[in-house]
Each structure stands twice: as C-alpha cells, then as structure tokens.
C-alpha cells in the first residue's frame, strides 16, 4: 500500500510555491512586459543549475542505501534523459544573439547569481552531509513548475519577443518532456514511506522554491533595464 506521499509533498510546499509564483517576471510575461535581456538572464541562470543536474543525480544515486535500489535504477534512466540539456540552453542563448561563451565560462553578464549558486551548493550539501534523498525536492520544484507554467510562459515569451523556435529549445522541450517526468515522479514519491526521508524532500523543496524564487525576482524587466532620464 503506497503512502500517497506525493499529495503530502504538494500540500506541504504550496505556500513556498505560491511565493515563488509572485515573482514579477510572471506578471510581466502575461502583460507583454519582457524583453530579450530578461529572457537571456533567465537562460543564463538556467544553465548554471542545469549543468549540475547530471552530477547531482550521480552523487545522489551513489549515496542511497540498499533500501532504495529501485530508486537508484530510476535515477539511471533519468540521467540518460537529462544528458546534454545545458547545451540546449547555450544554443538558445546564441540564437538570441547573446554571449553563450560568457555564460559557459561564468564571466561578465554570464555569471551565476547568488541564489542559484546557493541552491546548487545546498543540494550538494544535502547529498553529501545530510540526506541524499532530499535531492528530489529540487526535482519537484523544477519539474512541477515546468509542467504547470513552463509551456504557457514559453508561448508568451516567443510571441512577445518574436523569437525563432531555435531560441526556445529549453523552455518548450522541458514543458513537454516534464509532463511525462512528473507522472513518473509521482509514482516514485508514493513509494517513499520513511517519514524522515519524506521530511527531507519537503524541506529541500521549500528551500529550492525560496532560492529559485529569489533568482526569478532578480531578472531584469524592461522598465528596470534602462534608467529614466532626469
């Protein structure tokens, strides 16, 4: 009998999820108030966490104990599907006319912001020093967000900025790909019955919602990107 932990996870992270959704960038997209600088800033920060997805998955799989052999196998499949996604982001950045090399080399306008650097560091710390299964809190945040609003945002951004499909690979593909992932994720979470492990996932998800939301709040909006004339 499954514990139906997935629904508990959804409920326990609702407040943090709603707080993240209050980031000005979401309302700006709906109102047509986004420019290329905002979109490429988002892609830049996406690159700086997506490039860690495979290393984090591998680290998590290596730290799980024998009880979670079934979960380790699922991680193996997940790794195969996630390979190379950071390259998609760099290609999108190039298609927008921005400096993908600066992003890859973490310099100038391509630098990682503090919330994303802290988010990634937190996840490595969870895996290495606390409870590796907490990593799945991040999976819930990123894939849940992608499924719920990713496709809509992608459509709005492409329409507002009149961008070609080759500049939208990451956002569009993930909103579709993560539809399947979230079904698998729900099944996996419902097999986790240990209350300590469940709490580790909830706490990680709330932390990642907080830090990811901070990143979204730093994204430049058109009215902020150019100072008003005096």
Structure description:
With 230 residues, the chain is mostly helical. It has helices spanning 5-12, 14-21, 24-30, 36-50, 53-63, 69-82, 85-95, 100-104, 114-129, 135-161, 169-189, 195-218, 222-225.
Secondary structure: helix percent: over 70%
Helix-strand topology string? HHHHHHHHHHHHH
Q: How many alpha or pi helices? A: 13
Distance between the termini: 67 Å
Number of strands: 0
**Structural class, from helix and strand content?**
mainly alpha
| Average residue-wise pLDDT | 90
Main sheet: strands, sense, barrel: none
SSE diagram, text form:
Elements: H1 5-12, H2 14-21, H3 24-30, H4 36-50, H5 53-63, H6 69-82, H7 85-95, H8 100-104, H9 114-129, H10 135-161, H11 169-189, H12 195-218, H13 222-225
Helix pairs in contact: 2-12, 4-7, 5-6, 5-9, 9-12, 10-11, 10-12
Short summary of the structure?
Helix content is 74%, strand content 0%. With 230 residues, the chain is mostly helical.
Give short descriptive properties of this protein.
230 residues, mainly alpha, 74% helix, globular
């Amino acid at each position: 009998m499954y514990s139906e932990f997935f629904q508990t996870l959804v409920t326990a992270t609702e407040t943090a999820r709603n707080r993240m959704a209050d980031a000005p960038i979401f309302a700006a997209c709906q109102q047509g108030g986004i420019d290329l600088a905002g979109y490429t800033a988002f892609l830049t920060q996406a690159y700086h966490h997506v490039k860690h997805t495979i290393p984090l998955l591998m680290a998590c799989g290596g730290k799980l104990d024998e009880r979670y052999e079934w979960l380790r196998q699922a991680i193996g499949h997940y790794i195969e599907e996630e390979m190379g996604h950071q390259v998609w982001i760099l290609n999108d950045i190039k298609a927008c006319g921005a400096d993908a090399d600066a992003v890859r080399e973490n310099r100038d306008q391509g630098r990682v912001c503090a919330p994303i650097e802290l988010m990634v560091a937190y996840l490595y710390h969870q895996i290495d020093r606390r409870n590796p299964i907490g990593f799945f809190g991040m999976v819930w945040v990123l894939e849940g967000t992608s499924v719920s609003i990713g496709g809509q945002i992608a459509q709005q951004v492409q329409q507002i900025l009149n961008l070609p499909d080759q500049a939208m690979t990451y956002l569009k593909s993930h909103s579709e790909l993560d539809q399947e992932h979230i079904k698998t994720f729900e099944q996996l979470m419902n097999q986790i019955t240990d209350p300590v492990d469940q709490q580790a996932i909830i706490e990680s998800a709330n932390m990642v919602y907080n830090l990811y939301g901070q990143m979204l709040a730093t994204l430049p909006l058109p009215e902020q990107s150019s100072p008003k004339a005096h």
